[in-house]
Design the sequence.
């Protein structure tokens, strides 16, 4: 697990001038030393992907699907071991890590099935002697850059539609969590994926490798999951060669509880939407808007549930929340809380670094939060639920939409007309109505505004890796 597939061979530390270490965020222990690659390896990987994709693209959907099916089955069969690797490098509780592996595998299964359905069109000709056909073809070599919060699923979600469509991939996982990506590549090889088709560049120099990805003209698409600022930079870099982009960027998800909501269901939804992955997902509820009539009751119920969450090492069975990923993440959570408290917010539960020390933080609920506080504008990316009070539906829709982000939104209401009205008025790519859990391989995941472009999952997700070509046939 200390080698990465580059251009058809596995490169280890002996093949590199420099190395870097990977640490367990729960214990601070070093768990791996890996080769630190750069532009040269990235370019070699792109060259080999460019060659490997020629044969791969010619295969039938069914042939590609057979390999993806094997990869899916291997992921499921090895879920326990993959979960251990994931918890070790990222810190999330083992059960959650296992859930992520199965979630990632579900995309591999879905896109394997969809590989057979990249249908085109036959359009009635515009002249008597013309026939018009539309076919869909793989975009070619895809570069992928993925974050640390879902080390398996964010990559599986990109790799599987790319392979299903007939593309090749060069991926750069986050340096904090590269081991899950290496395990995925090992299993892909075991599933029979041809050499050179899936490459992994391990690096601590993301900027350098990002430049190779966006300037190498053999790369036809860049798919990125991460922060809006880095997404913007990559979009600028890719502009020179009009690169096709898939961007899954930051969110600032509102979670709205109306007076007519089922409060217990709303609390259940909040626990999932906020505290899953310790608040470190781009679809995590970031701002809770609670209508005045149920504000106190909701705050009390939520705080009572949050107080029961157990923080600690992800390998401890009883643990609900692992550590934050690094010191910077912890400092941001602390800064958001102290800013809110200095402007009048109250801590209903949590509010401090956990007594365990290290990167552990207490799951927190803040009440009496107002729009002038940092938590209203910025993604906290940690276990903090700030509760804002609102009065009317119109007011809360305006507040919810008052952000440059547009990824996920959630609301709870038992009024059917309101469900449609608010669902349509929220400027977000995904809206959970009476649910805090929206991610699935069968639905299109993605954002609008500065949360990105493109969709992952569902039949729309395959289209992102296909080009539309029109053939006009003139008859004698
Ligand atoms: P996060 O806050 O999740 O770490 P980032 O956007 O910083 O979000 O990182 C997401 C991924 O983007 C990681 O793999 C990281 O190494 C990579 N990355 C960060 N900066 C750049 C850059 N300038 N060019 C290319 N990749 C980058």
Sequence:
């Amino acid at each position: 697990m200390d080698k990465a597939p580059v251009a058809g061979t596995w490169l280890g530390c002996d093949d590199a001038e420099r190395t870097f270490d990977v640490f367990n965020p729960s214990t601070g222990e070093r768990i791996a030393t890996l080769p630190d690659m750069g532009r040269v390896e990235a370019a070699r990987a792109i060259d080999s992907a460019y060659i490997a994709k020629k044969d791969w693209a010619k295969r039938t959907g069914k042939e590609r699907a057979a390999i993806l099916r094997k990869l899916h089955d291997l992921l499921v069969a090895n879920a326990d071991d993959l979960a251990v690797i994931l918890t070790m490098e990222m810190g999330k509780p083992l059960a959650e890590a296992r859930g992520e592996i199965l979630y990632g595998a579900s995309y591999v299964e879905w896109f394997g099935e969809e590989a057979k359905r990249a249908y085109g069109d036959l359009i009635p000709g515009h002249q008597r002697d013309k026939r018009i056909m539309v076919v869909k073809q793989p975009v070619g070599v895809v570069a992928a850059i993925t974050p640390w919060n879902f080390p398996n699923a964010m990559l599986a979600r990109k790799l599987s539609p790319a392979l299903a469509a007939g593309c090749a991939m060069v991926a750069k996982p986050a340096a904090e969590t590269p081991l899950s990506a290496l395990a995925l590549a090992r299993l892909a090889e075991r599933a029979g994926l041809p050499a050179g088709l899936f490459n992994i560049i391990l690096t601590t120099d993301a900027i350098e490798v990002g430049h190779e990805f966006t300037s190498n003209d053999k790369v036809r698409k860049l798919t990125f999951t991460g922060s809006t600022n880095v997404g913007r930079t990559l979009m600028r870099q890719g502009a020179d060669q009009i690169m096709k982009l898939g961007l899954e960027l930051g969110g600032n998800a509102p979670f709205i509880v109306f007076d007519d909501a089922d409060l217990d269901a709303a609390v259940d939804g909040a626990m999932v939407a906020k505290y899953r992955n310790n608040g470190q997902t781009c679809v995590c509820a970031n701002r809770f808007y609670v209508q005045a009539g149920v504000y106190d009751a909701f705050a009390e119920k939520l705080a009572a549930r949050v107080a029961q969450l157990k923080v600690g090492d992800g390998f401890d069975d009883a643990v609900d929340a692992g550590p934050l990923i690094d010191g910077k993440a912890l400092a941001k959570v602390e800064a958001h809380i102290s800013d809110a408290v200095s402007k009048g917010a109250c801590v209903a539960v949590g509010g401090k670094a956990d007594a365990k020390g290290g990167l552990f933080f207490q799951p927190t609920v803040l009440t009496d939060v107002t729009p002038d506080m940092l938590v209203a504008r910025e993604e906290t990316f940690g276990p903090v639920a700030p509760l804002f009070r609102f009065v009317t539906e119109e007011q809360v829709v305006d507040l919810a939409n008052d952000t440059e982000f547009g990824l996920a939104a959630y609301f709870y209401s038992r009024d059917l007309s309101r469900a449609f009205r608010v669902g349509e008025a929220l400027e977000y790519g995904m809206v959970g109505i009476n649910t805090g859990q929206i991610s699935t391989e069968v639905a299109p995941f993605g954002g609008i505004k500065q949360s990105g472009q493109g969709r992952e999952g569902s039949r729309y997700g395959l289209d992102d890796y296909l080009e539309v070509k029109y053939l006009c046939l003139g008859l004698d």
Summary: DSSP finds 15 helices and 22 strands in the chain. The chain has a mean pLDDT of 97.
